Amino acid sequence: MREKLQEVAARLGGALVARGWTLGCAESCTGGLLASVLTDASGASAWFNGAVVAYANAVKRDVLGVSQATLDASGAVSRETVLAMARGARGVMRADVAVAISGVAGPTGGTPQKPVGTVWMAWDGPEGVAVKRFQFDGDRLAVKRQAVHEAMAGVLAMAAGAHEARTDESMRP
Fold this sequence. Notes:
Blueprint: H1 2-19, E1 23-27, H2 33-39, E2 48-53, H3 57-62, H4 68-74, H5 79-92, E3 97-103, E4 118-125, E5 128-135, H6 140-159, E6 169-171
Parallel strand pairs: 1-2, 1-3, 5-6
Antiparallel strand pairs: 3-4, 4-5
Helix pairs in contact: 1-6
């Protein structure tokens, strides 16, 4: 799986360079794995500005600008939170496009409403905003890796011009 992620990261870098875009990330449940995979790509400094690992709600609030009201009403793993995280990451990282990830990687922490494997992602770019809910299978590392793959795929789609604004779309890869 690591090789597949590295291949996607390399393609992503090429697509971002072709558009003249830079990327910023806000990660929660992936804990920096996305940034690690992206920086494994040779030449990433040309298109990757950086990431915030916002594991604690205080970081989501104080660094990325997610309102306390959003966190209280919707929770950290929600459409509203990842949209705010993506917007915040785009600003903090001074990036053309940003992706945000928040979810329940497990093996604990799931609820009936948000079972283990639930991951929300949002992409914010010059041509619009998109958000998706995923339900991944597997152990903690598998959930994180699948989330990283889908986060990069979403940025690739945006760079290709195929990402239109979306609402609560539930996805199962």
